Amino acid sequence: MTDTHDNNINNVDELNEILRVRRDKLDELQKSGNDPFKQVKYDVTAKSAEIINNFDKMDGQTVSVAGRLMSKRGMGKVSFCDLHDRDGKIQLYVRIDELGEDKYSEFRKYDIGDIVGIEGTVFKTHKGEISIKVFNVVLLSKSLQPLPEKWHGLKDTDLRYRQRYIDLIVNSDVKNTFVLRSKIIKAIREYLDEKGFLEVDTPLLNPIPGGAAARPFITHHNALDMDLYLRIAPELYLKRLIVGGLEKVYEMGRMFRNEGISIKHNPEFSMLELYQAYADYNDMMTITEDMISYVCNKTLGTCKITYQGQHLDLTPPWRRLSMIDAVKEYGGIDFDDLCDMEEIKKELKDHGINVEGKISKGNALNMAFEELVEPHLIQPVFIYDYPIEISPLTKKKYSNPELTERFELFIYGREMGNAYSELNDPIDQKERFTDQVRKRESGDDEANMEDTDYILAMEYGLPPTGGLGIGIDRLVMLLTDSYSIRDVILFPTMRTREV
Predict the structure, then answer these.
(1) What pLDDT digit, counting tens, does each position of 182-192 carry?
(2) What one-character DSSP code corresponds to residue 133?
């Protein structure tokens, strides 16, 4: 007898029959006083991976394990099953003379997907497979829905994201991705805590959305009768803490941006932001490469990885290239030699970039970079010295006030992090906020609002400060070789589907 996943369901009637049979089994159990849903707890003494990895020490020991039945194979008085728990799977060896005739007959009625508690003895079969010889079994939860066998090969990834619980049950690779995600986040905390950073919490509900150029989600607080915004970034709150004297702070948490969805974007996502007093963007480059290489070695054991077939070496130090030099190297346009805007527009048009209407030199430089350079930045590289027009919270380069002390980290052609020497001149900051307000009034929904309390905080004195933001989801994508951001977010944002 072989019982695998109930995958070959050809029509609705067949599915309905399977559902009916499973509910009839539950009804029979409940009438006989064996309702599995009355089980309150089960004492687990070992996990599958622990048994397999320590077989020499555990051979012959009695253990209690629990998990989900994922296959049943048997001939008459003997059955073999695969039990899956969080750490992996282990084979069960079930015999009628060990379990007893009544209990064995009941066990054979269990379905794939049922959750069971097992007591047995660790041993190795004649074929050399580490297993558990079962002498007691308890049904802990009855599965009323059949599991799809070919879920891993399912082309409808939308369904996998909606029903992540099934994805995790059936696909061990998916489970491993999220286990690794947890380890990556833990390693980031270890690194920053060791460096003396203090983890803090800042509000998710903001009276003013700030810290990034993005369209916010708006909600309303009834008691206060005021609109609030889900935070797009924690930056302005964290820098208030630097003003307060905490000096080295970080936060990892959810951000919300009311923007499009793609393989790189989800409206709800995780970000790390950190700030260090008396540091600049060069210090942030060092922290970035040092931290990511630490996380790689801690979680993967190496800094040499493969992402989507591309070999990447994350071993520090990483290349550092100014935006102007990057556009010159990859795009063939030298912005140092260009001053006239008509000449700049012509250069862009000659490279396939059409510009309509008025545009500044800094915005033109950024357009050229995005179109001509970003796809080529495969190995890790810091692109630094961004135009002031697109960096409203960043300190100017006093050697060239058209540029700012800002960098972005690129790996595999994607922006992975953003950092500044933070603007700490409150007068300059107020002028830039005013400029952002003008842009917002002109129809730019992503322009910053003016945060007068933040200006007030700066007037008490914000020390020279370096700040860094890294997208956690994109970093996890990179280290788990995941194609889409939805592959590393347990419950990505989805359009509501009518049932």
Answers:
(1) 999 999 999 99
(2) E
Quick check: pTM over 0.90?
yes
- Rounded (to 5) percent helix, strand, coil in the chain: 40, 25, 35
CA gap 462, 498 in Å, rounded = 51
Gap between the Cα atoms of 203 and 237, Å rounded: 8
Question: Which of 319, 320, 321, 317 lies closest to 293, judged by CA?
Answer: 317
Determine the Cα–Cα distance for residues 178 and 132; give it in Å rounded to an integer: 28
Q: What pLDDT score was predicted for residue 445?
A: 78
Q: Which pLDDT belongs to residue 15?
A: 78
Q: What angle, rounded to 10 degrees, do the helices at 452-459 and 235-243 form?
A: 20
Nearest by Cα to 25 from 12, 41, 36: 36
Whole-number pLDDT of residue 227: 97
| Degrees to nearest 5, angle at CA 364 with 358 and 369 | 155
Q: What is the model's pLDDT at position 2?
A: 45
> What does the pLDDT average to over 350-373?
92
What's the residue count for the chain?
Answer: 499
**Residues 45, 50, 56, CA angle at the centre, nearest 5°?**
105
Neighbours of 340 (CB within 10 A): 9
Mind giving me the DSSP string for 302-331? Answer: -SEEEETTEEEE-PSSPEEEEHHHHIIIII
| Of residues 277, 204, 200, the one with CA closest to residue 467 | 277
Q: Which strand (E) or helix (H) includes residue 132?
A: strand 130-141
The pLDDT confidence band at residue 369, using thresholds 50, 70 and 90, is: very high
